[in-house]
Amino acid sequence: MSDKKVPNEKQLNIALDESVADGVYSNLAIINHSMSEFIVDFITVMPGAPKARVKSRIILTPEHAKRFHKALGENIQRFENVNGIIETNEPPPIPLNFGPTGEA
């Protein structure tokens, strides 16, 4: 047997800009989709505030949305294995006025 390491065929280097590294807090996500994409809008709703703004929008292909769903589920399961079940209390219904909607 050889001690040589087999090099990876491809390697992806990912850069994280300082402006993105701090992240954006969100306590509401609205998901829409068309035939070709899933659109996830992350919003911060403050108690008593009559208006909330979309803080970040992520657009995914259906295939990547499914991969994200799987990866998020796996991470939630690992978190709960260490920290216990995440309790989900249904928030009170918030009437949403999300402006005009459209399809891409």
Fold and architecture overview:
The chain has 104 residues and is an alpha+beta fold. It has helices spanning 18-21, 62-83; strands at residues 28-33, 38-43, 54-60. The protein has 2 helices and 3 strands; from the N terminus they run αβββα. It has a 3-stranded antiparallel beta sheet. The longest helix has 22 residues, at 62-83. The radius of gyration is 19 Å and the shape is extended. The protein starts with 17 loop residues before the first helix and ends in a 21-residue tail after the last helix.
Shape: extended
* Rg over alpha carbons: 19 Å
**Topology, number of strands:** 3
The protein's oligomeric status is single chain
How do the helices and strands follow one another from N- to C-terminus? HEEEH
Total of DSSP H or I helical runs spanning 4+ residues: 2
What's the topology here?
Layout: H1 18-21, E1 28-33, E2 38-43, E3 54-60, H2 62-83
Antiparallel strand pairs: 1-2, 2-3
Task: Briefly summarize what is shown.
This protein has two helices and three strands, in the order H-E-E-E-H.
